[in-house]
Amino acid sequence: MLARTLLQNKKIYNQYNQFRKSIFTELSPKDGEVILYLLPWLLSINDPRCPGYVERLRQPIRIYGIEQNRYIFRREAVFKTLFNIRKEGQMLRPITNACIIQGVYTIG
């Protein structure tokens, strides 16, 4: 009973969160693109051609669940072009030893 309630609450929360993201993207398309998709991608790749690059990073950093985020994967080619990254294939591959960022939040 408790597990079912928790799963139901998680489902409702995820639906509400997705609704909020879609409203944000609709009302502020440029800001929405940067905050919801580009920023998490940048935090997770640490490429020297991108803002925020840390040269001597001992452990890779990842946003939790980013490898399964289809919205970011759809945009990755555009992001790579934006920063003149010519690597073939996806840059977001699963990494076992990454330091995980649990969430990136905005207020408003």
Parts with pLDDT < 50 across at least 5 consecutive residues: none
The portion of residues forming beta strands comes to 5-15%
Arrangement of strands in the largest sheet: 1-2
* DSSP, total strands: 2
Using only CA atoms, what is the Rg?
A: 16 Å
- What share of the residues lie within helices? 40-55%
Query: What's the tally of helices?
Result: 3
Explain this structure.
The chain is globular, with a radius of gyration of 16 Å. Helix content is 52%, strand content 6%. The protein is mainly α and 108 residues long. Strands 1-2 form a two-stranded parallel ribbon.
Structure keywords:
single chain, about 110 residues, mainly alpha, two-stranded parallel sheet, globular
